[in-house]
Amino acid sequence: MVYIMIILSIAAVVLFLYIREKNRAYSMKELFLKTTLSALFVLLSLLAAFESGNDNVARIDVFIIMGLVFGLLGDVWLDLKYVFASEDVRLTYAGFISFGLGHIFFITGLILDYGHGVQAYYLLLPFAIGLIVSFLNLKMEKLMNLKYGKMKLIVFIYGFILFSFVSLTLILSIINRFSVTALNLLFIGSVLFTASDLVLSGTYFGTGKERLIDFILNYLLYYPAQFLIAISLYFMH
Questions:
Q1: Side-chain half-sphere of 71: how many Cα atoms within 13 Å?
Q2: Residue 65 belongs to what domain range?
């Protein structure tokens, strides 16, 4: 069943990108399609966890699934801001908060399931890296031709959480010598997720970066990230 969901998810992504390129405008119809697509990834994670061979649902399964659910909510809020332009700031905040909470669920699950026996400083290091990189991201605002404005604080907090997540997956993968498939998939997924957000930050806070190609590139990074995070549960033991 999980392989059927993989095929459906890939087909749904291709269909969504085709419709997005054809319409080149935001609407409730597109929002419905995008939400349905995100729901498919949540369903894929549920099936992957169920068919993973675990007798009981592992703690990380629950946290990864919840992270994907909050990612779905983030998709809704961030697309609604294009439909209801007057609520742009509030909906952008809601999107950042939802995705941030999703990453916190990912981080929590990783620490609970892969943090046993790991020296404390290895688990603290990702947060130090996240803090430094997020701070540098703000300092490079002008260099990257971005303008965060009143959203600077939420960008910093979200960046800290996001960069901590990708750093944690890398460090845990290194500790396990890249021998744990689930961790490797989560690491690649987190890298793609981060790349997607970097592209998206240009469309939100930059100028001249709102071309269709920028949005398509974001989707081509974001959906494989969601797919890898969801399918990683199939390899959890």
A1: 30
A2: 2-235
Residues 197 and 191: their CA atoms lie apart, in Å, by 10
Of the two residues 228 and 2, the one the predictor is more confident about is 228
Is residue 3 over pLDDT 80?
no
C-beta of residue 214 within 8 angstroms of C-beta of residue 199 = yes
Instruction: Encode 200-227 in three state secondary structure.
Output: HHHHHHECCCCCHHHHHHHHHHHHHHHH
Instruction: Count Cβ neighbours within 10 Å for each residue of 106-134 and write b for 16 or more, e otherwise.
Output: bbbbbbebbbeeeeeeebeebbebbeebb
Cα gap 146→35, rounded to integer Å: 28
The candidate with the shortest Cα–Cα distance to 78, out of 102, 54, 105, 55, is 102
Mean pLDDT throughout 142-165? 93
At residue 22 the predicted structure's pLDDT band, cuts being 50, 70 and 90, is: low
b/e map of 212-229 (b: 16 or more CB within 10 Å)?
Answer: eeebebbbebbbbbbbbb
The total of structural domains in the chain comes to 1
pTM of the complete model: 0.91
